[in-house]
Structure formats: C-alpha cells, structure tokens
C-alpha cells in the first residue's frame, strides 16, 4: 500500500471510477506528507461553535486524549494549552461522502479539513488498514476511511476499466452470494451501479436491471449493510428508490424532477449525495485556484487535478443548473442532503474540492448551516458513524477552526487556521513537487 508503484496503481484505478458525466485524467505524481507535532489536552476558548446542527455563539471546547471532553464553560487550568477562538468558528471535521480514495488523497483531504472520507468503489485491499485507523485515536496524517469496496456492476458496464479484473454480475450470478462476498471482503456498505451511458457522443452501456438492483439491495440489507446507488438520471434514481436504496450518491442532472418525482424520492427515505462538483465544468476548480486562502496549501496532485478543466462542448446542457435545481427541491422536500465530491476526477481534488462543493450546495438552496450539516452531522447520521460529525463531549476530536463565520458566509470555511485529527494538530504544509 505504501510503495510508490502501488500508490500509482491505486490512483490510476481510482481514475476510472468517477461519475460517467465527466472524463478522468491520468494519475499525477505525489509524495508523502510531513510530520505533525504531538497532540495533548487543550482548550479552544471563546469561539463560535457550529456543533454539526446548530450554532453556539460563544463557548469553549476542551480536548484531551483524542476526544472532545467539554463544550461550554471550561474552567481555566494550567494543564491545558489555550487557543484563542475569538472571531473564529469551530466546526466538526468534514466528511466527504463520495470519494475514490488513495493514500496521498487521504493526506490531501486532511490538510483541507476533511477528516473522514467515504469511498464509493475501490480495491478491497485498502479495507483492513482503513478499519484499523478509524478505530484508533493515534496521530495520523490521513483522513479516516470507510469504503464500499468493489461496487456491483455488469461486464462492460460502468466503471469501464479494461485493466481491472473485478467480479461483475451476469444473468446467472447468485446475487446473495455476490453480496456476501463483498461483505466478507470488508465492504462497509454496498454500492450499486445503475448507469446505461449516453447520450451520444458518449456510448450507451450495459447496466444492472432494476430487478437485479432490487435483489442486491435486499441482500445488502440481509447482511446489515446500507445500499447506495450510482444514478445520474432521474429515471434511474427513481428505479433505485423503488428498489429500496438507502442513498443516491449523485444528484440527477439529465432533467428537472417534477413534484411527483421529488415526492416519491422523499417518501422512499433515501439520502442524496449530489456531487455537483462533478458537473460544474471546472467552475469550482477555477475559483479555488484563484483563492489565496487555498493555493499555498495545495499538493502537486491537488493542483494537477484542479487544473484539468474539461473542454466545453457547444450546446452542452447546463448540468450544474439542472442538478442544483433538483438538489434545491429535494432539500425543500426534506430529503437528507450529504456533501461529496467524487474526487479524484477532472477539476476535482481530495479535500479542497469539498470547499467548492459546499458553495454549490448553498447556491442550490441549502443555506450555509444546512450545507455544513451536510458535511458533518448528516453523513454521520446517515452512515451510522457514531463517534464523529458533531462537536459534542465524548466524540472524536476531529475539528476545523476557521476565521470568520461560515454559518452565515460559507466562503469563510476556506479561511482555515487550524485542523485537529484525533486531537492532534494537522501540519498543512503540502508535500514537495
Ligand atoms: Zn464515484
């Protein structure tokens, strides 16, 4: 896992796994991150706290041994190092709910305040180490990881990757057995692909049938695993919901959902991870690359990925506008919205692209607090991550401190002054070229 050849393999593998709507770049080189100082007990004093759900205008937060110990009044003690929180906001570490993870990606994520990544299709070889790390409160240079492992798709279907020999579902496959094999490999949830490709010039693709998807989801539930579905089209999103999906890991952007469609998705109870960054055609990346609060901290890999803005096509539908309209309607209907990026794909890099995605969610109609909840408490609740996603006593001290007030101005989330992972400060120095 830590050898350079293996790193390259994982990154190139991840490059095939993004959404079908936008192509992916070749792998970029990267190096390992710097060492961070040891953690200890400390207080962040007189800080505005967004606790994952609501705002506490002024509080102090005590951290010791990797956990949040108190939120509110914390008596002064010579044992605690003090950080001045005045004029700043403390947030739970961010959770990116749609990535395809690799080692440097998890370090890049952490240096931008993303302390947990939920991987949506990857090599199951990464799972045992990921599980060990996320159970520990030891110092780490990488975001914690949960993963679907190998997603459920058909021969020739999305993700189309001739170099990666993975099991795929055919007409004769025993679907219970297939899902049991993923669970045995360590999949934390089951990812289902409903993707039939097109429209031209993109090729059409073979896909699971809705009946197969229903069987996969039922098998996942029998194994006490959530089932999440890749569907970028309204028709397929509705099929996923009718099949019992727990979540959709893209918005749909082939057309706007009508009131009946939105109501059906809401009744189905699924959450939605919009990944609007997938269809912003580089708007978020251009904005990040022009932001002096961002650029000093970019790794070579992050900069490379952000610079890969896809060429525009004359007459291309405005997928971002369509997807955003759908997200606004889903949110208004009470559908839980979770923040995710689908990194690494073109113009979309680990960690940093979450800061652009939060802006997309606000413009889609969530408002800053709901957008921040979509990146903290909402994913913790949707995925059952009981030890994180809020600033509350007993939870893991994954914390993000920013200048200003992102609960009223989401752009302030980019003004990062400190990040703690498991109560240890994160060194934001990017790795060398
Ligand atoms: Zn993906």
Description:
30% of the residues lie in helices and 17% in strands. The chain has twelve helices and 15 strands. The strands form three sheets. Strands 1, 2, 3, 4, 5, 13, 14 and 15 form an eight-stranded mixed beta sheet that branches. Strands 9-10-11-12 form a four-stranded parallel beta sheet. The chain has a three-stranded parallel beta sheet with strand order 6-7-8. Strand 7, helix 3 and strand 8 (144-147) form a beta-alpha-beta unit. The model is unreliable at 1-11 and 21-38 (pLDDT under 50). The radius of gyration is 21 Å and the shape is globular. Helix 6 runs parallel beside helix 7 (259-268). With 433 residues, the protein is of the alpha/beta class. The chain has one domain: TIM Barrel, CATH 3.20.20.140. The chain has helices at 4-14, 103-110, 127-135, 175-185, 210-222, 234-242, 259-268, 283-289, 300-306, 319-332, 352-374, 377-383; strands at 42-50, 55-64, 67-72, 81-84, 88-92, 94-99, 114-119, 144-147, 190-193, 227-230, 247-248, 271-272, 399-403, 416-421, 424-425. Residues 17-19, 98, 100, 120-121, 342 line the site of zinc ion.
Q: Which key phrases capture this entry?
A:
single chain; 433 residues; alpha/beta; TIM Barrel; 4-stranded parallel β-sheet; 12 helices; 30% helix; globular; disordered N terminus; binds zinc ion; Metallo-dep_Hydrolase; Amidohydrolase family protein
């Amino acid at each position: 896992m830590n050898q350079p050849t293996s790193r390259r393999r994982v990154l190139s593998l991840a490059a095939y796994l993004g959404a079908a709507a936008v192509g992916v770049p070749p792998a970029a080189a990267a190096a390992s991150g710097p060492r961070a100082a040891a953690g200890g007990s400390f207080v962040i004093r007189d800080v505005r706290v967004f606790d994952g759900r609501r705002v506490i205008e002024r509080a102090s937060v005590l951290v010791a041994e990797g956990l949040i110990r108190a939120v509110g009044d914390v008596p002064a003690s010579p044992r605690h190092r003090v950080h001045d929180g005045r004029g700043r906001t403390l947030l739970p570490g961010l959770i990116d709910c749609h990535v395809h993870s690799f080692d440097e990606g998890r370090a890049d994520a952490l240096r931008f305040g993303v302390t947990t990544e939920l991987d949506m299709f990857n090599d199951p070889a990464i799972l045992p180490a990921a599980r060990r790390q996320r159970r520990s409160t030891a110092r780490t240079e990488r975001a914690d990881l949960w993963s679907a492992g190998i997603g459920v798709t058909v021969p020739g279907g999305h993700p189309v990757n001739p170099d990666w020999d993975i099991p795929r579902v055919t007409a004769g496959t025993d679907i219970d057995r297939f899902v049991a094999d993923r669970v045995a490999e360590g999949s934390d949830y089951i990812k289902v692909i409903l993707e039939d490709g097109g429209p031209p010039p993109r090729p059409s693709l073979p896909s699971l049938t809705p009946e197969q998807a229903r069987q996969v989801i039922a098998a996942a539930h029998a194994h006490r695993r959530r089932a999440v579905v890749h569907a970028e089209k309204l028709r397929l999103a509705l099929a996923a919901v009718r099949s019992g999906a727990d979540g959709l890991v893209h918005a749909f952007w082939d057309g706007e959902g009508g009131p009946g469609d939105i109501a059906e998705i809401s009744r189905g109870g699924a959450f939605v991870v919009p990944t609007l960054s997938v269809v912003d055609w580089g708007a978020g990346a251009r904005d990040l690359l022009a932001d002096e609060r961002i650029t000093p901290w970019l790794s070579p890999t992050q900069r490379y990925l952000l610079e890969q803005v896809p060429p525009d096509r004359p007459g291309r539908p405005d997928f971002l506008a369509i997807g955003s309209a759908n997200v606004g309607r889903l949110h208004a209907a009470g559908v839980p919205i979770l923040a995710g990026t689908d990194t690494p794909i073109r113009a979309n890099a680990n960690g940093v692209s979450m800061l652009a995605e939060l802006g997309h969610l606000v413009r889609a109609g969530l408002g800053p607090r709901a957008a921040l909840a979509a990146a903290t408490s909402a994913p913790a609740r949707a995925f059952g991550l009981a030890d994180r996603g809020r600033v509350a006593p007993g939870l893991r001290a994954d914390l993000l401190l920013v200048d200003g007030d992102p609960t009223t101005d989401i752009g302030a989330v980019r003004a990062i002054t400190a990040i703690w992972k498991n109560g240890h400060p994160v060194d934001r120095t990017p790795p060398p070229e």
